[in-house]
């Protein structure tokens, strides 16, 4: 999961600080998320999925389908 989050960020040429600002957390906390040093809270996981326009299942390695699920 953590590698996917990093890869998505790097694909957009964004820094950890830029993503951390979007998530309203520090760069250090976000870095810990990417390294897997701390668990990502559900709220943050959802915000990351929305930001990267993918599903939480993709971020959690439950699917290889990047495309988000259709809205109900």
TrEMBL record:
Keyword field contains DNA-binding: yes
Coiled coil spans: none
SUPFAM superfamilies: lambda repressor-like DNA-binding domains (SSF47413)
Key words of the record: DNA-binding
Domain HTH cro/C1-type as annotated: residue spans: 5-59
Domain of life: Bacteria
Presence of the UniProt keyword DNA-binding in the record: yes
InterPro entries per the UniProt record, alphabetical: Cro/C1-type_HTH, Lambda_DNA-bd_dom_sf
PANTHER family, per the entry: HTH-TYPE TRANSCRIPTIONAL REGULATOR XRE, TRACRIPTIONAL REGULATORY PROTEIN-RELATED-RELATED
Official protein name in the record: Helix-turn-helix transcriptional regulator
Naturally occurring in which organism (per UniProt): Paenibacillus ottowii
